[in-house]
Amino acid sequence: MLGSYVKTNLNLFIIIILIISLLTIRIFIFDIFIDENDTKDVDYINDFEKLERPEGLNITGVLIGSEILNKSLFYKNKQFDYITDIVELDLDPDPGLEIGLASTNGATFINNNSDTISKVMFESWLNHVEIIDINNDNTYEFMNRGSWLSGASTYDHHGEEIWTYTYEDRGTDDACAGDIDNDGQLEFVVGFNGGGGVHLLDENGDNVWVKPDGNVWHVEMVDTNNDSTFEIVHSNVSGDITVRNGKGKVISKNEVSPHHYLSDFSISSWPGSNDSKYIISCDEVGIWIINFSGETVIQLKAPRCEDLGFARGLPVKLMNDQPEYFAVIVAYKNWERSILYLYNITNDLVYQEILPEVCNSIAAVTLNDPETEVLLIGGEGEVWKYEPV
Ligand SMILES: [Ca+2]
Ligand SMILES: [Ca+2]
Ligand SMILES: [Ca+2]
Ligand SMILES: [Ca+2]
């Protein structure tokens, strides 16, 4: 009896030692490849074979239009890693607007002169953080769009986690926030890798519905038909554009024409801020402006643009007496490069710069003059300001 008791405990002891050893080896292996200060390593944990940087991206600096735009450093705090969201908002009763900056490891609110009003740091390194207001009370929260390692999650204004959403052992590809039922509370759409599908969550991160789909690379909520209600727009394993209503029903599903495999994309009004919204994507052909039925409206000429970039664009009112320009920043997270393109109203490329860093955010903000905007580009712990020369 005693012998069997000792033997059972010995077996248990051996099993525990074995588990601890395996965990230690696993942590050790992860440590070799992951620099925790470098979130792109986390993204590419399954992609050890780094692609060589294309020759066209080896040079950096202004290639076109130095006589048009002036670049200056607007904000710098190397405590922050990649700046992933820049929002102009009215944070406090002080006259004028403030600016919110979210990064992969923290967030800050600053005034027009870049003085810090408040700052929070997150407990862990996240993937792509955006500033949101979950319950429409003018106190800002944060959303992590998620990754295979972290899942999608939200944080309160102190930076404390509210919830994290994961599904079985599926990798999270992307998540976005929007009030899809117009009740004043945000919902969240999460897209999963493999056969994990598309999920709608309520403001508490609880599942409302699941619809099957494969490799849902990128999700957005946008009003595609001007009825003041968001639809869900996402890409998938086939590279198609799927539009769903708030119940998850597919309204349309189309290939991009001419053929373009859609994975990552962003949404913007084009060419001006009062115009319709389009899908913005890129590859070696150029910057693609695509409608929600998959028809390509234009391929903007974009020298040195490559596949595997993430294109984010928006109209910017740089000059009082000129129509808006259209600015696009394409980020290459595996090559430590970004390309900034600026187009005039006739779609001519008037400015091009290759930046030696990964720029995951772009914004047009008014700062001190409500009649005009400056362009802000978020890089690695810094934000660049572009204004007319
Ligand atoms: Ca204010
Ligand atoms: Ca809030
Ligand atoms: Ca809602
Ligand atoms: Ca709609």
Features:
four-stranded antiparallel sheet; 389 residues; five-stranded antiparallel sheet; disordered N terminus; mainly beta; single chain; binds calcium ion; Methylamine Dehydrogenase, Chain H; 29 strands
Radius of gyration: 22 Å
Shape: globular
Strand composition percent: 35-45%
The CATH homology group name? YVTN repeat-like/Quinoprotein amine dehydrogenase
Unreliable runs, pLDDT <50, ≥5 residues?
1-8, 18-46
Topology, number of strands = 29
* Spatial strand sequence of the major β-sheet: 1-26-25-24-23
Tally of individual domains: 1
CATH arch. level architecture: 7 Propeller
- Provide mean pLDDT, rounded: 90
End-to-end Cα distance, whole Å, is 89 Å
Number of helices: 2
Task: Just give the CATH class.
Answer: Mainly Beta
* CATH topology type: Methylamine Dehydrogenase, Chain H
- Residues in helices, as a percent range: under 10%
Structural class: mainly beta
Enumerate the distinct ligands: calcium ion
Largest sheet: 5 strands, antiparallel
